[in-house]
Specification:
Elements (H helix, E strand, L loop, with lengths): L7 H22 L8 H21 L4 H20 L5 H18 L9 H13 L4 E5 L5 H9 L4 E6 L2 H14 L4 E5 L12 E4 L6 H11 L5 E5 L10 E4 L7 E6 L1
Parallel strand pairs: 1-2, 1-4, 2-3, 4-5
Antiparallel strand pairs: 5-7, 6-7
Helix pairs in contact: 1-2, 1-3, 2-3, 5-6
Bound molecules: S-adenosylmethionine (SAM).
């Protein structure tokens, strides 16, 4: 099981704000001989970013939230000092929302299956002789690209509703796919999975009960649902693939 926790947004805010506040206090109140140079400010911002990640680890934040905190904290340190134009703030919010909107809407933020997991999924799809593979919430399209590249005879679809993640995944497939992969701007809940041989999801604990009910009702007999890390309450998987990576990934498999 991965290191994900409830209420990640307030925890991320807390770790970033505390670390940035400490850096700003140091900048404001350190003895006068602390050089107030750009290099010192850069050092303080980096220190604050590291401190926010350490705090985030203590608060059991998942990787995507730690990354977000590491990016946001230096901005929090520099903004009061440089006082940039006001438009920068909504611009930052729009960019972050473009990737992380589903963290708020569905309690499913963006984090990515690693390359070992992608390779395992591609091999599994080949071994199952799958014809159609769907990644529900495909993020930046890494799984879609890997499965499609290694299995030219499988049609791979990724669905995604975070606008910037979708755009990157879509562009990636347009530029590099051999034609057996597509990215669709569509919600998981509106996705037709009746023809799929394999459905893959790497989401969070929040949607698992509802998702499993949908897949159970719609997927055809003999097809397979794979959840990266997140269990279905009350329904044990038929199989588990254990990957010996740094997070000890488990691919939980249900045969429909
Ligand atoms: C943890 S990421 C996994 C990305 C990718 N599947 C991978 O394994 O690398 C989950 C993704 O699901 C997307 N997502 C969450 N809820 C969704 C929904 N209802 N419809 C479409 N995408 C959704 C999020 O925006 C996020 O990009």
């Amino acid at each position: 099981m991965s290191r994900e926790t409830r209420w990640p947004v307030p925890r991320t805010l807390a770790s970033s704000i505390l670390a940035a506040a400490a850096a700003l206090l140091l900048w404001a109140y350190a003895p006068g001989d602390l050089p107030r140079t750009h290099a010192m400010l850069l050092g303080l911002s980096l220190g604050a970013a590291i401190a926010s990640v350490l705090l985030g680890l203590l608060l059991q934040l998942g990787t995507a939230w730690l990354v977000l905190s590491a990016i946001a904290t230096p901005a929090l340190v520099m903004v009061p000092i440089f006082q940039p134009p006001l438009w920068i703030f909504p611009a930052i919010v729009v960019v972050l929302a473009g990737f992380y909107i589903n963290g708020v809407r569905e309690q499913v933020p963006l984090y990515l299956s690693n390359s070992r997991t992608q390779a395992e999924l591609a091999a599994f799809a080949a071994q199952q002789k799958a014809g159609i593979f769907i990644d529900l919430g495909c993020g930046l399209g890494s799984v879609v690209a890997a499965v499609a590249r290694q299995n030219p005879s499988i049609h791979v679809t990724g669905v995604e509703t975070a606008p910037l993640s979708y755009l990157i995944a879509w562009l990636r497939m347009k530029l590099f796919s051999r034609g057996n992969a597509e990215i669709v701007f569509r919600s998981i809940w509106q996705t037709d999975v009746r023809e799929a041989d394999i459905v893959y999801a790497f989401l969070s604990p929040a949607p698992m009960t509802r998702l499993y009910a949908k897949l159970k009702a719609e997927m055809k007999p003999g097809s397979v649902f794979i959840s990266n890390s997140f269990a279905v309450p009350g329904d044990e998987p038929d199989d588990i693939i254990r990957i010996d990576d740094s997070r000890q990934t488990q691919l939980l498999i249900w045969r429909m």
